[in-house]
């Protein structure tokens, strides 16, 4: 009788950090985003699932998720769209003419925070959600570890990307 | 009646206040706090009848604020309004003494459902 030897390969394969595409799909990300839009932006605000070229002056907001899957939920749109979103969120509190940059950062960051919090709830835990940040669009994660949704809001492009960091620090090659 | 709304996002504070009005709580005084530390201080100085607090905030989180309040003997009614509504967080909130956790995004109906017993 021969005793099978355990090379350990199987365990290592099982310990591979999960890809986000194994944990969440585009339909779920889109549904989460639509719920956030209806509740925060306005009950008549629809998102049309169509890709379109992003303007050069794109702005992003994101929240980091750290846990069994680690990465970010990144919301990206043109600067004019970000201004329109801020006005929609502030409604009667929006200034007549000039919207401050800090209000745009706040509004876009809070949208990423709400979408990110609900994405986190779908992913395996325990995990921690970071505070929202806003700035230039971060580099995309690995394509295989990215779940991206392209939509149009009021005819303008907007993307929501659940993506790993560009270089995964926690990945150990087999 | 006085409600303290704590959130590090000014935009979200406005949305919470607007939703309170839509839910029929438009005759209450509103006090705003911009993080957990500010909320803790304003519970002391403003004596609100209810605190509606975000969870994830700089300086002091909503949970730390609630724990500090309970540790100092305050029994102010406290509810979370947060983007994270997992079972784990609801349990942590309840264990710390929160009355409810409203997950963002929310509607006026959600507010009514949770607040009518508290602000009756």
TrEMBL record, chain A:
<feature type="domain" description="Chemotaxis phosphatase CheX-like">
    <location>
        <begin position="61"/>
        <end position="133"/>
    </location>
</feature>
<dbReference type="GO" id="GO:0006935">
    <property type="term" value="P:chemotaxis"/>
</dbReference>
<dbReference type="InterPro" id="IPR028976">
    <property type="entry name" value="CheC-like_sf"/>
</dbReference>
<dbReference type="InterPro" id="IPR028051">
    <property type="entry name" value="CheX-like_dom"/>
</dbReference>
<protein>
    <submittedName>
        <fullName>Chemotaxis phosphatase CheX</fullName>
    </submittedName>
</protein>
<dbReference type="Pfam" id="PF13690">
    <property type="entry name" value="CheX"/>
</dbReference>
<keyword id="KW-0145">Chemotaxis</keyword>
Automatic annotation (TrEMBL), chain B:
<protein>
    <submittedName>
        <fullName>Response regulator</fullName>
    </submittedName>
</protein>
<dbReference type="InterPro" id="IPR001789">
    <property type="entry name" value="Sig_transdc_resp-reg_receiver"/>
</dbReference>
<feature type="domain" description="Response regulatory">
    <location>
        <begin position="2"/>
        <end position="119"/>
    </location>
</feature>
<dbReference type="Pfam" id="PF00072">
    <property type="entry name" value="Response_reg"/>
</dbReference>
<dbReference type="InterPro" id="IPR011006">
    <property type="entry name" value="CheY-like_superfamily"/>
</dbReference>
<feature type="modified residue" description="4-aspartylphosphate">
    <location>
        <position position="54"/>
    </location>
</feature>
<dbReference type="GO" id="GO:0000160">
    <property type="term" value="P:phosphorelay signal transduction system"/>
</dbReference>
<keyword id="KW-0597">Phosphoprotein</keyword>
<dbReference type="InterPro" id="IPR052048">
    <property type="entry name" value="ST_Response_Regulator"/>
</dbReference>
């Amino acid at each position: 009788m021969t005793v099978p030897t355990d090379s350990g390969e199987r365990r290592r394969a099982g310990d591979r950090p999960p890809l986000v595409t194994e944990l969440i799909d585009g339909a779920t990300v889109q549904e989460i985003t639509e719920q956030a839009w209806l509740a925060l932006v306005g009950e008549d605000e629809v998102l049309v699932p169509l890709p379109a070229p992003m303007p050069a002056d794109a702005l992003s907001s994101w929240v980091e998720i750290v846990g069994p899957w680690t990465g970010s939920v990144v919301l990206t749109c043109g600067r004019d769209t970000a201004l329109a979103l801020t006005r929609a969120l502030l409604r009667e509190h929006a200034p007549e003419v000039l919207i401050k940059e800090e209000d745009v950062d706040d509004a876009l960051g809070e949208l990423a925070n709400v979408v990110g919090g609900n994405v986190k709830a779908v992913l395996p835990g325990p995990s921690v959600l970071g505070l929202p940040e806003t700035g230039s669009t971060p580099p995309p994660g690995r394509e295989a570890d990215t779940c991206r949704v392209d939509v149009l809001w009021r005819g303008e492009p907007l993307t929501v990307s659940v993506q790993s960091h560009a270089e995964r620090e926690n990945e150990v090659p087999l | 009646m006085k409600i303290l709304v704590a959130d590090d996002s000014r935009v979200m504070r406005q949305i919470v206040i607007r939703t309170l009005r839509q839910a029929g709580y438009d005759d209450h005084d509103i006090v705003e706090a911009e993080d957990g530390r500010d909320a803790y201080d304003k519970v002391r100085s403003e004596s609100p009848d209810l605190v509606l607090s975000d969870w994830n905030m700089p300086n002091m989180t909503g949970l730390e604020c609630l724990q500090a309040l309970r540790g100092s003997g305050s029994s102010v009614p406290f509810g979370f309004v947060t983007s994270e509504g997992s079972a784990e967080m609801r349990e942590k909130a309840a264990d710390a003494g929160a009355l409810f956790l409203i997950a963002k995004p929310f509607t006026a109906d959600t507010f009514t459902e949770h607040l009518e017993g508290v602000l009756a």
